[in-house]
Amino acid sequence: EDQVTQSPEALRLQEGESSSLNCSYTVSGLRGLFWYRQDPGKGPEFLFTLYSAGEEKEKERLKATLTKKESFLHITAPKPEDSATYLCAVQASQDSSYKLIFGSGTRLLVRP
Amino acid sequence: ETGVTQTPRHLVMGMTNKKSLKCEQHLGHNAMYWYKQSAKKPLELMFVYSLEERVENNSVPSRFSPECPNSSHLFLHLHTLQPEDSALYLCASSQELINQPQHFGDGTRLSIL
Fold first, then answer.
1. DSSP alpha helix (H) spans, A7-66
2. Coil, strand, or helix at residue B86?
3. Which one-letter DSSP state was computed for residue A17?
């Protein structure tokens, strides 16, 4: 069964304290892995798409990487405005492959 | 307007009411989606439309009825809902069904009394 697991469930950081969020996936063939940010009361905001192992994408303080089994979202020198829930989703290369399978998310709190 | 717009943002209804959620996308996308987001659970895909044709009905109870009159608009008609249907309902769109990111609206927070 296709599955996405995110860890940790919650993470508290001091401003400037770099860290990484993990997204482990089990799918029979990966079409793409997507990272989203969700603020309270808002819908998920698209951040990155990764398609193949070894691929990396960067945006400001965020960097996403991909291996054959997991993806990391590295946050360098975070600021309080980076506080949000970060969601990972995968699209599998099989029947009904347009489905995005979401993880439960990591709630990030960055304290000043 | 840009992006994906959902109305209303909040809705409180009784179990016997009938209401509709509306979604409009201004991105020129071909696919649209309805998701349910409950507390501490992953997003659950409900319905998928591609070029106004329904391509997925993910075992959703018949008290939820989707409608896609054109590629820019998506509705979710609600009737005889249950308390466990209280959740955030999110609409999304993507350029194509495969290999494309989905872009989300801010959702409708639904509360069933």
1. none
2. coil
3. -
**Residue A42 at interface with chain B, using a CB cutoff of 8 Å:** yes
Of A34, A99, A104, which has the smallest distance from its Cβ to B45's Cβ?
A99
Do the beta carbons of residue A91 and residue A100 sit within 8 Å?
yes
- Residues in chain A closer than 8 A to B103 (CB atoms): 46
Q: CA B41, A104, B98, B91 torsion: positive or negative? A: positive
Token pair of A101 as six digits: 């399978």
Tell me the count of A-B CB pairs closer than 8 A. Answer: 56
Q: Give the contacts of A95 (CB within 8 A, at least 6 positions apart).
A: none
**A96 chain-B contacts, CB cut-off 8 A:** 56
Q: What are the residues whose beta carbons fall under 8 Å from the beta carbon of A68, sequence distance 6 or more? A: A53
**Angle CA(A84)–CA(A87)–CA(A92) in degrees, nearest 5?**
170
Tell me the one-letter amino acid at B47: F
Token pair 């798409």 is at which residue?
Answer: A49
As a whole number of angstroms, the distance between CA B93 and CA B97 comes to 9
From B82's Cα to the closest Cα of chain A, the distance in A is: 22
Query: pLDDT tens, position by position, for chain A (112 residues)?
Result: 889 999 999 999 999 999 999 999 998 889 999 999 999 999 999 999 999 999 999 999 999 999 999 999 999 999 999 999 999 999 988 766 678 999 999 999 999 9
